[in-house]
Design goal:
The chain has 435 residues and is α/β, with parallel strands linked by helices. It folds into 2 domains: 323 residues, 3-Layer(aba) Sandwich (Rossmann fold); 97 residues, GMP Synthetase, Chain A, domain 3 (2-Layer Sandwich). 33% of the residues lie in helices and 23% in strands. It is built from 13 helices and 20 strands. The strands form 5 sheets. The chain has a 9-stranded mixed beta sheet with strand order 4-3-5-6-7-8-9-14-13. A 4-stranded mixed beta sheet has the order 19-18-17-20. A 3-stranded antiparallel beta sheet has the order 10-11-12. α2 packs across α3 and α10 packs across α12. Bound molecules: 5'-O-[hydroxy(phenylacetyl)phosphoryl]adenosine. 5'-O-[hydroxy(phenylacetyl)phosphoryl]adenosine binds next to α6, β7 and β12.
Length: 435
């Protein structure tokens, strides 16, 4: 097995991990206090000094850092080292406000790539694999992160970036790619294109996929696994804390192990900020324990999930996070009811529809409206108008049962919804335009 299975860390006992985390935390708090004026001010406001933090048990004393803080401090305000020591920048897409820019020293890049290497090894990768990286390269962290991890494992790395799907498939066949890394929505699109090209999953060499960067359901996982003839693994991360590889799935495919030697995770009540006990659902908060250039302490991700230390069959002891249902920002409040796009996706795929859908929310006559357009498959498209009306009605009923409010369902022609090569856009909330 590759060097990037590190049992001394990945299978360490809870007390060993905690001791390692405590040691790193004490140093990290000092590093931040001494070098990051913005966070020093937050600590001073709360009356906390570095000496107050002697172990992980003291973490709760530290102030939170939010996305708003990152925007306030843009671009250099949270730098923990001189700019001259940084070797790389990545950034979020900035669709919901000002961009977040993250900085990396060479050591930060190394630890990030190690995390991605662990993820590839956990998905069965080794030096004989051909790893096709179809996440975007550039400011987005997906391409560079998995590229670095793949090279560390010793895989032959194909830096395809996203897009140009037919060329992706041609390379996949010609170079016998065994591992595919991309967003789940792009993996589904690649699967659909394979089918259209008349290529069966047996004619490609893929065995595993490492998919993340957006929420995806178990139903979507099964569809992708079937379409590509692979085992599909989840991977999680965010630009603010390096990128992909903060957490990764193992062969048990039941939640993602967090790389706890680098990232300490807490779950808090998003309303009160109170730390919740293991197993509770709440907002995920990360502390980077040894990142140098952009060392975020108690960073509120807005991702809603839960943590579990239940024994994992793979032997790893690293705490596991449940697949996030989506960000608290993705949650729509429609007629007072909380709705996540992933709930709609679950119903669609269970009822045999494609994962190509678009949710539109609006407000008419002071009432919220929810319209879900769903693409028919070419086989379903030949149905009569009467059949289609019945299908729309049945699908709307299934969604009402799941959501507690009734949507209007529109079944639309195959290929009429734009495909995604990166993160899929699933929701258009027109109410925001009226505000
Ligand atoms: O999406 C980093 C990444 C790249 C992760 C490639 C995995 C693979 P950002 O663009 O900053 O970074 O977006 C981070 O995406 O807070 C989650 O809301 C969401 N997200 C990431 N991975 C998952 C996942 C990258 N596996 C935000 N499941 C995070 C659900 C995910 N949501």
């Amino acid at each position: 097995m590759s060097n990037y299975f590190q049992p001394e860390i990945e299978c360490a006992s809870a007390s060993e991990i905690r001791a390692m985390q405590s040691e790193k935390l004490v140093k990290q708090v000092k590093h931040v206090y001494d070098n990051v004026e913005y966070y020093r001010n937050l600590m001073d406001e709360k009356g906390v000094k570095p000496e107050d933090i002697q172990s992980i048990d003291d973490l709760h004393k530290l102030p939170f850092l939010t996305k708003a803080d990152l925007r306030d401090a843009y671009p250099y305000g949270l730098l923990g080292v001189n700019l001259g020591e940084c070797v790389r920048i990545h950034s979020t897409s900035g669709t919901t406000g000002r961009r977040v820019v993250a900085f990396y020293t060479q050591k930060d890049i190394d630890l990030w790539e190690d995390c991605c290497a662990r993820a590839i090894v956990a998905a069965g990768g080794n030096k004989d694999d051909v790893c096709q990286v179809a996440y975007g390269y550039g400011l987005f962290t997906g391409g560079f992160g998995l590229n670095g991890g793949s090279q560390k494992v010793g895989c032959l790395t194909l830096p395809m970036s996203s897009g140009n799907t037919e060329r992706q498939i041609q390379f996949m066949q010609d170079l016998q790619a065994t591992i595919l890394c991309c967003t789940p929505s792009y993996a589904a699109y690649i699967g659909e294109t394979l089918k259209e090209m008349g290529i069966s999953p047996d004619e490609i060499s893929l065995k595993a996929g490492i998919f993340g960067a957006e929420p995806w359901t178990e139903e979507m996982r099964r569809d992708i696994e079937k379409a590509l003839g692979i085992k599909a693994y989840d991977i999680y991360g965010l630009t603010e804390s390096t990128g992909p590889g903060v957490a990764f799935e193992c062969e048990a495919q039941k939640g993602m192990h967090i790389n706890e030697d680098h990232f300490y995770a807490e779950i808090i009540d998003p309303e009160t900020g109170e730390v919740l006990p293991e197993g509770s659902k709440g907002e995920l908060v990360f502390t980077s324990l040894d990142k140098e250039a952009f060392p975020l302490l108690r960073y509120r991700t807005r991702d809603i999930c839960l943590l579990s230390r239940e024994k994992c069959s793979c032997g790893r002891t690293l705490v596991k996070m449940r697949k996030p249902m989506g960000r608290s920002d993705d949650m729509m409040i429609i007629r007072g009811v909380n709705v996540f796009p992933s709930q709609i996706e679950t119903v669609l795929l269970k009822e045999g529809y494609s994962p190509n859908y678009l949710i539109e929310v609006d407000r008419k006559n002071n009432t919220d409206t929810l319209d879900v357009s769903v693409e028919l498959t070419p086989e379903q498209f030949s149905d009569t108008v009467k059949d289609i009306a019945k299908k729309e009605h049945d699908l709307a009923s299934a969604m009402t049962t799941m959501l507690g409010i009734s949507p209007k369902v529109h079944l639309v022609a195959p290929k009429s919804i734009t495909r995604s090569e990166g993160k899929a856009v699933r929701v258009i909330d027109k109410r925001k335009l009226h505000d």
